[in-house]
Model the fold of this input.
Amino acid sequence: MIKVAYLVSHPIQYQAPLMRLLSSKPGVDLDVYFRSSFSTAAYYDPGFGGKVEWDVPLLDGYKSKTLTPHPLNRISKLDFSQGLFKHLAASGKTVLWIHGFANPYYAYVIERALRQGVQVFIRDEVQKTGNRRSPWKERVKGAILRSWSKRGVGFLAIGTLNRDYYIAKGVDPASIFLVPYAVDREFFERLSAESRADFGPRREALGFDRDATVVLFASKFMERKRGLDLIEAFRQTYPRLLAAGVNKPVLAFAGSGEQAEALEAAVRGLPIVFLGFQNQQSLGRLFGLVDLFVLPSRHEPWGLVVNEAMSASLPVIVSDEVGCWPDLVKDGINGFVFPAGDQPALAEALFKAMSDPARLAAMGDESRRIIGDWGYAQDVSGILEAAAWSRARRTCEPR
Done:
């Protein structure tokens, strides 16, 4: 029996299906601990510039508990772990999986767990691509990671760039296990298929012609997501697309946020549609009504919306600062990768994808094939492999 406690900041829509799957596995005893439960109700998300209330279950199908706030009014009884170790002792959990490590709270929990002989696994988004951190902070982080690695901490890599970061910091490669960033593929496959079954009327309801060629951007309207780059690239390639006979090219923006006014002001006569924030179910259906997905971000640790789009059999274009690209985007096969911030290169990628309908469809098929090997089943395998490594390591330790 693997007795695992998972510590994460709050319930996350992408992770809930994985928690349910893990909890259903024979031989796995999982307890999930949240530092806060704010995401289970409507809350203000500054990235979206408004309130968000997720339309998928966040807490069903697994054991979870929200930790108590710090009792700052009773300093003598202060437990900086928010009662976590009391729960670990009561439940007999021997493995602590932590989402994150770079803030003082998580560093404290990791150190305390190691002193108490608890096996620690760290999963984090950190990677080198687009890294804007100061050199001295990176040196400190490297020293901490090397120290933890020598003391038996395991690392659950979300993908290639994340694994490369740990190795570059001196983490023992034998202690790194692939637990990929994933989404509920079947969810997005099912919802997109529903839309395709009623394609014409659903498209018209959104303001698209049935035979238009639609490019989708779906993310927060933030500067680092580079929505303005996409508009400018679309402006550059639009005349070429028309000259090449592409059916009614359209660019659709799904989302909201601080750059909304700037994006709308940049349209200037182009066929660009703003659809507003799309929750998980409406986004899944939207994927079935478009032809191509683009995420041109800078400093994007992963980009789970790319997983979602690929699950809906969409070709994808991403910048080389979107962390998922080495694992999910095969240039010229299921999409294109371009240098972040390079608007002409993005315009050329748009033209290559949109000017050949047969190629566009084939790339969508490749997306679905690639993402088929990148999901929650691989996460479970990675976690079980890490647990087996931990048991073998403890067996070999001198008594």
The chain has two domains: 2-182+375-396, 185-371.
